[in-house]
Amino acid sequence: xxxxxxxxxxxxxxxxxxxxxxxxxxxxxxxxxxxxxxxxxxxxxxxxxxxxxxxxxxxxxxxxxxxxxxxxxxxxxxxxxxxxxxxxxxxxxxxxxxxxxxxxxxxxxxxxxxxxxxxxxxxxxxxxxxxxxxxxxxxxxxxxxxxxxxxxxxxxxxxxxxxxxxxxxxxxxxxxxxxxxxxxxxxxxxxxxxxxxxxxxxxxxxxxxxxxxxxxxxxxxxxxxxxxxxxxxxxxxxxxxxxxxxxxxxxxxxxxxxxxxxxxxxxxxxxxxxxxxxxxxxxxxxxxxxx
Length: 291
Fold this sequence. Notes:
This protein is of the alpha/beta class. The chain has helices at 13-24, 39-55, 61-68, 77-80, 95-108, 124-128, 162-174, 190-206, 212-222, 229-236, 238-252, 261-268, and strands at 5-9, 28-32, 71-74, 86-89, 114-117, 137-141, 151-156, 178-183. It has an 8-stranded mixed β-sheet, with helices on both faces. Helix 1 (13-24) packs across helix 2 (39-55) and helix 8 (190-206) crosses helix 10.
């Protein structure tokens, strides 16, 4: 799959990050969103990523100039996906919303386009059930921040065509990512493991075992994790983590996925992490940089 035409639907934290790495990899990229007012700030954030890469010596100005010609925002989602080879959905983690979107994508995207969902925990089979040809749908789960995280989970549901999975793996590698293929199961591999670790860290904080900083330091220095589970939760968003935990608890019916009260209380108070300025940490002037 050489320099495919990519459409990214959803201009939030994950969507603009995916658009950035695809553009950088040489793809022609169209970014769209059902909320047109989300597009200008997303394009600005992509510009900031390019500027930061130039400052760090990772890119040259000529690279940014060339990339700028390959990226555009499109207010009309149907037009955005009209000639795409790969369509990546990165909208809210709501099954009904995703199913309605995929039914629309099947009508508006080319028949040969790969349709991928960036869901971090929802059933890919259920999302694929919204289209007449579920074989063309796969999970393509990127991690936040997309430009820094090497992993992409390729999620294979029972009706996914082998060719679609192979295309997804090749696409992820073309973006410079390391793909793993997992079968469709609640939480896949990464979210299921990561959420358990995060929830246990919250229970430890709730019980006064140690401070948030020291719990995180235990995993960073003792297990070589690049970031502790509580700080990671702040970056992901406490509301996002709560929704995933509730979904896993409901579907798997296992006690380790039951959200602790401290998480519910913080979400109820609007302490959602870095995007609101406070979660398990205080973020001060950095609020709004991630979600």
